[in-house]
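Possible regression after last week's pipeline update?

I re-ran a chain I had predicted before the update to compare outputs. Posting the input and the new output here so someone can diff against the archived version. Not blocking, just want to make sure nothing changed silently.
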Amino acid sequence: MGYVKFLGTAGARFVVARQLRSSAGTWIELGGTQLLLDPGPGTLLRARKSRPALDPSELSAILLSHKHLDHSTDVNILIEAMADAGRTRRGALLAPADALEGEDPVVLRYVRQFLERIELWDEDGTYAVDKVAIRSVRHHHGEVETYGLLVDSPEGRIGFVTDAKFTPDLPGRYRGCQLLVLNVVRREWSPDVDHLSLPEAVEIVQEVRPNLAVLTHFGMTMLRGKPWELAAELTEKLGIKVVAAADGLTVDAGEWR
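New output (post-update):
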């Protein structure tokens, strides 16, 4: 039985800096394969303090949607931990090119030797990690290279709509997802922010019509709006189950299949 565990749900600089919500990443187990998405600040600590504790040395891959600090700060220590404190060479890193190249790479060169392989995301690229198939979806998110993910496994299809500026084609890229996870930073739309607002997230959910939608990665306006109440209102309005993630929330595969 697979699951998605939200170690953290913080999604804006102020929320992360004040740790009003945890900024740790998302732990995923599908088809017996363990993956970690976007290990932001505090991910290793949250993983080890989970009950039961999550063991990075059992990870098969770390998935980095983009290099912003709230998504990547713990990537180096997690690579080393995935390699059993650097004692073995194992696991994969899937990441954008600018997380490893250019003027501001976030993946340190010395930890790269601990990995079995590194693969770079590409527009509509396809990747395999054990029994899990992943397709990358290019997002518009400021000047950094950013990708959402379509993850297929024996437990079905999951879409991770990571940080993104809404575009008309975005909802269609996630059709067929049984579980849809959306990073929703703002409650109201703003033209100057390259993050999804709640109305834009609603538009995506309405078109995709997953069995379950989970909202996460909240900024201050979402937190002030009480995301659990907003999710309940959307469930009533859309006829689709919508949940607001809380730090530590575990969603089992039976909830989306």
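Follow-up from reviewer: compared with the archived run. Residues 148 and 255 are 22 Å apart (CA to CA). Marking as no regression found.
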